[in-house]
Design brief:
Elements lengths: L2 E3 L22 H4 L5 E6 L4 H19 L4 E7 L17 E3 L10 E4 L15 H14 L2 E5 L1 H11 L4 E15 L12 E11 L2 H6 L3 E6 L4 E7 L3 E5 L9 H14 L16 H16 L6 H9 L8 H30 L1
Helix pairs in contact: 2-9, 6-8, 7-8
Length: 345
């Protein structure tokens, strides 16, 4: 079944970040049945990545949903600028998170953002973010916290702080299943996941506070972990939803920042991502930029990236994990309905 964007203002002709032909909602009868699950997406990404993030999550949910009808509502947090309505955004279908408190959702996805303060508690959106965490604990069957949202959520829930690495964890990491869980059922024992972050969490601290680690990177860093209380909270330090070219676009952005003197460190090549020919070309351009920094070198970087051959090695497993997530929500919702019917009888 397709994913339907839920908005009274959305239509087949509404502006969107990409062509999305399935804006018409399911019938009221299906919408109100236990078969249809309602998911919220809180998109906290900055302008440059806002539309791409929306597209990535809608795409992976659409691929993973199979026979489960999914109704998706889009939200944004106050204090985070988002694009105005236009041809390259879906701003016309976003709701303020303040409208969430009185709504009924079965599941929620909360994205990360680029922090603007060293302490996450000093972020302008911290108060509204913590409201979302508390609401999700009591009002969803399951919530996904992606990347920085995962770090912020565990900081609020259990005071677990993240730790900055000397080098950015950037590239496609091989991950290993370390415990059995319905979310990873059917996944291979080893699979690939894109990562793009400076900070990480210490596994011992997570386990001490009742979290279960499901997968680790080959370097023994935490990848995916969960905490199951009233709602199953799923935490991704990586980005299984990423498009094939997302890491390439991030690399191009960071190279541009260096060449424009907006950053002092030339970015590392994403690990396990580019073909060898592209890696050689980009490494040579890096050496040249390190000796004579200037924006004129950016054209050469762009040419090398246009010729890159990238194989998406993570999508199939990512779809499986999100399919398991939707099935978990669907099963919890059905059980809740059956329990309610039994009480009535």
């Amino acid at each position: 079944m397709p994913v339907y964007v839920d908005s009274d203002r959305a239509s087949d002709s509404s502006p969107g970040s990409f062509t999305w032909p399935r804006r018409r909602p399911p019938s009221k009868r299906l919408e109100q049945s236990s078969r249809c699950i309602k998911i919220g997406l809180i998109n906290n990404m900055p302008h440059a990545a806002f539309a791409a993030t929306e597209r990535q999550f809608i795409s992976i949910l659409d691929s993973a949903s199979e026979s489960i009808p999914v109704q998706l509502t889009l939200y944004s947090l106050p204090g985070i600028p988002r694009p105005e309505r236009g041809g390259d955004t879906a701003g016309s279908v976003y709701l303020s998170v303040d409208t969430l408190w009185e709504r009924s959702l079965d599941g929620l996805i909360v994205t990360g953002k680029e922090p603007i303060t060293p302490n996450l508690k000093d972020e302008p959106c911290w108060e509204s973010f913590t409201q979302v965490v508390e609401w999700a604990r009591e009002n969803t069957y399951s919530t996904v916290w992606s990347c920085l949202a995962a770090h912020a959520a565990v900081l609020h829930l259990d005071g677990i702080g993240r730790r900055r690495s000397d080098e950015k964890n950037f590239g496609v990491s091989e991950c290993v299943r370390v415990s059995d869980h319905s979310l990873t059922e059917g996944a291979p024992s080893r699979f690939q996941v894109p990562h793009s972050r400076w900070n990480g969490l210490v596994e011992e601290e997570l386990v001490t506070h009742g979290y279960s680690v499901l997968t680790r990177t080959a370097g023994s860093d935490v990848d995916t972990f969960v905490k199951d209380e009233n709602s199953l909270f799923v935490f991704f330090q990586g980005h299984p939803e990423y498009d094939t070219d997302t890491l390439m676009r991030e690399y191009r952005r960071d190279v541009g920042r260096y060449l424009r003197h907006e950053a002092e460190t030339y970015p590392l090549l994403p690990r396990g991502y580019f073909d060898r020919s592209t890696e050689r070309a980009l490494s040579a351009l890096r050496e040249e930029a390190m000796s004579r920094r200037g924006e004129e070198l950016f054209a050469g970087v762009g040419n090398a990236l246009e010729a890159a051959r990238i194989k998406n090695t993570w999508r199939r497993t990512a779809e499986l994990i999100y399919r398991n997530w939707l099935q978990h929500i669907s099963a919890r919702k059905l059980a809740s309905h059956l329990e309610g019917d039994a009480h009535v009888a």
